[in-house]
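User: Could you check the structure of this?
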Amino acid sequence: GNLCADPKLAAPAAAEPDVRLLAGSPAIDAGDDALVPAALTTDVFGAPRIADGDGNGVARVDLGAVERPGPVPPVPPVPPAPPAPAPPAAAKDTTAPAISGLRLTSRTLRPAGKPGPRRPKAPPRTTTFRFRLSEAATVRIAFAPVVRRKARRAVGTLVRPGVKAGDVRVAFSGRLGRRVLRPGTYRATLTATDAAGNRSRPVIVTLTVVR
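Assistant: Sure, the predicted structure tokens are below.
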């Protein structure tokens, strides 16, 4: 068809004319699709011959040799990535440590001093608690005097933090800091507490302190 209006070409008067249609050109979608040969599927630039140049939702051929492409559909936003799954919670440690095979190198000890002239040969001054520990833990040994076969309240506790699993030896001289155990029989109660707070069953052994 013919058009009696400014077709609004890009640069018709240039040394190399640019005959592409500008936005708002009356030539856009103004042709007759029935006049387009079936074999003619592209314009002079290889673009589709029939396009919706004015963006009204209906594709129709433009007047002229160049088809104005339809509007570029907006790019849908990229959905945000789903949050990373939380790492599985670490299994709670509910297993208590265990103390086994407890024995003393000597059940009699002398905390301090030397035997007098009328005393027999003194027993070993120190003793060593020997046992096996199932896992790393803090070991506590509480000493309670025994009177008439009954243990009274503990008079002191020996604490050994960070004891490794395996065979353990804890030397004891009869002193708890500045306190010296008085002569008598004592019940030593051993317990172990791991990093999770699990506490072992108490293990008990008796020993005697002499002058």
